């Protein structure tokens, strides 16, 4: 069995994105002079939720991707999944804080949710092949 190098690529890219989003929270808190929590600042609240949303969904998505790769999922679907996940995770924060309805947030959410559902189904199918 080979190393899961495709998942490693997208885990690394999304790891960098997550640290960027966490640093953004710290920066926004500093500007708003908020040490912990949101301090009632809507700007801090948006930054916290952007980071939190990423931290909530990316680990599950990457776990599904890793399992699919370990179960023999092909490189093209894995790159498609990882690429769409990454694009979705970039679009979502671009839409947060903008007035609704917002196409960036909607597409980012759809790519993330849809990808998790699709990867779950794919993983169920892959396990029947073994």
Give the tags.
130 residues, mainly alpha, single chain, elongated, Four Helix Bundle (Hemerythrin (Met), subunit A), 4 helices, 0% strand
What's the count of strands?
A: 0
Label the structural class. Answer: mainly alpha
CATH homology superfamily name = Membrane associated eicosanoid/glutathione metabolism-like domain
Q: What share of the residues lie within helices?
A: over 70%
CA gyration radius, whole angstroms: 17 Å
Strand content: under 5%
Uncertain runs = none
Return the domain count: 1
Mean pLDDT: 94
Order of helices and strands: HHHH
Termini separation: 14 Å
Instruction: Please report the number of helical segments.
Output: 4
What does this molecule look like?
The protein has 130 residues and is mainly alpha-helical. The chain has one domain: Four Helix Bundle (Hemerythrin (Met), subunit A), CATH 1.20.120.550. Helices cover 80% and strands 0% of the residues. The chain has four helices and no strands. The protein has helices spanning 5-32, 42-70, 75-95, 103-128. Helix 1 (5-32) runs parallel beside helix 3 (75-95) and helix 2 runs parallel beside helix 4. The radius of gyration is 17 Å and the shape is elongated. The model has no long low-confidence stretch (mean pLDDT 94).
């Amino acid at each position: 069995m080979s190393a899961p190098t495709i998942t490693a690529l997208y885990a690394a890219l999304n790891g960098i994105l997550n640290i960027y989003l966490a640093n953004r929270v710290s920066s926004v808190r500093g500007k708003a002079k908020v040490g912990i929590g949101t301090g009632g600042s809507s700007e801090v609240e948006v930054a916290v939720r952007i980071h939190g949303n990423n931290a909530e969904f990316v680990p599950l998505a990457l776990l599904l991707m890793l399992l699919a790769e370990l179960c023999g999922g092909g490189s093209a679907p894995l790159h498609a999944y990882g690429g769409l996940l990454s694009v979705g995770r970039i679009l979502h924060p671009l839409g947060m804080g903008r007035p609704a309805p917002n196409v960036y947030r909607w597409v980012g959410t759809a790519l993330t949710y849809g990808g998790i559902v699709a990867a779950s189904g794919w993983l169920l199918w892959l396990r029947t092949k073994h």
